[in-house]
Automatic annotation (TrEMBL):
Designated name of the protein: 2-dehydropantoate 2-reductase
Domain Ketopantoate reductase N-terminal: 3-136
SUPFAM superfamilies listed in its UniProt record: 6-phosphogluconate dehydrogenase C-terminal domain-like, NAD(P)-binding Rossmann-fold domains
Record-linked Pfam families: ApbA, ApbA_C
Length: 304
């Protein structure tokens, strides 16, 4: 659930390493998957997978072991309800959305025993109906039970993803990992989208570098105020990692903005602003980035 950048990538990899994979998709994307298979254009060539089932009707899938949950933030509730027919008491639902609220939002709809927590480091997109495109060489999926305790179902899914060629490291603190990506992403997303710039621009413009580092500190402080054990070196580690990113890199938010698609800002800059209030701290820069992107939230032109 579903067959976008995240779900489509893992569907191809898992199906081609021998697993029974159902791809939930709709419209032209589904029609092309049924007709030609699901195609992954990666840096090392093209792979095609024939899903076990490709459908927009989850009641046709039956009960499953695991659900890779990868829809955009605004689609979470509807997609979660559609997962209900596929659950047994042991099915694990692994959210890989950006932001820090997906797992908590899922337990409002799905039984808590079914819901895990997770985060993805990858850059993939639906290039055209039936075709997923991967950019770059990184594909790391970090996930665990909500309380981070080891479990067989998490270990099995990690092993399956590793056998399929990606990275799925074990973690002793999934909340910290989800927040670490959020701290990084709040800066990359907010600046490359609101600033219409690339990581190269951020790294080569001292004023933008300072702003990037301020967003990172601001979001990290929100996490710390909420009790997340982010560590005192997260700011420097993120800056080091950011400095090594490809110069042309932009967040999916910036690419969505350019393509006039809806933006996930409610779950990134907007979430930082909201969570700061909850934590009793401030988030002036995240608030500003959120406000600058708000006119474009629903896609299309600005509301002006
Ligand atoms: N792609 C990436 O590289 C990364 C993505 N992420 C995060 O992962 C999440 C998913 O991103 P991504 O995979 O790129 O998103 P995509 O937009 O590529 O894919 C989401 C898919 O979900 C489908 N969908 C939504 N609701 C339903 C539903 N009820 N039934 C069936 N299909 C549905 C959409 O179909 P339709 O078009 O018909 O609405 C779309 O095909 C986001 O939070 C993103 O920020 C995190 C790290 C990297
Ligand atoms: C920054 C990146 C590519 C890291 O996975 C990402 O999550 C996104 O752009 O949505």
């Amino acid at each position: 659930m579903a067959t976008g950048g995240i779900g489509g990538f893992l569907a191809v990899k898992l199906a081609n390493s021998g697993h029974q994979v159902a791809t939930i998709a709709r419209g032209n994307h589904l029609a092309e998957i049924i007709k030609n298979g699901l195609i992954l254009e990666g840096t090392s060539g093209i792979e095609v997978a024939q899903p076990w089932i490709a459908t927009d009707d989850t009641s046709k899938v039956g009960e499953v072991d695991a659900i890779i949950f990868g829809v955009k933030g605004d689609a979470l509730e509807t997609a979660a309800r559609a997962c209900l027919p596929m659950l047994t008491a042991d099915t694990v639902v692994v959210p890989l959305l950006n932001g820090v609220e997906a797992s908590d939002r899922l337990i409002n709809i799905l039984p808590e025993r079914n819901v895990a927590n997770g985060v993805a480091q990858i850059s993939t997109t639906i290039a055209s109906p039936g075709v997923i495109k991967k950019i770059g060489d990184f594909d790391v999926f970090t996930f665990a039970e909500r309380d981070s305790k080891p479990s067989e179902r998490i270990a099995n899914l990690q092993q399956a993803i590793k056998d399929a060629g990606s990275s799925a490291p074990a973690t002793e603190d999934i909340e910290r990992d989800v927040w670490s990506k959020f701290v990084f992403f709040s800066a990359v997303s907010g600046l490359t989208a609101a600033g219409r710039c690339t990581m190269g621009d951020i790294l080569s413009t001292p004023e933008l570098s300072v702003l990037f580092r301020r967003v990172v500190s601001e979001t990290a402080d929100i996490g710390r105020a909420l009790g997340i054990s982010l560590g005192s070196d997260i700011e420097s580690r993120i800056w080091e990692a950011a400095s090594a990113l490809p110069k042309s890199m932009r967040a999916s938010t910036a690419i969505d903005l350019e393509n006039r698609r809806p933006l996930e800002i409610e779950w990134v800059s907007g979430a930082a602003a909201r969570l700061a209030k909850k934590a009793g701290t401030t988030a002036a820069i995240n608030e500003a980035l959120y406000a600058l992107l708000l006119p474009y939230k629903h896609g299309g032109n600005s509301s002006a």
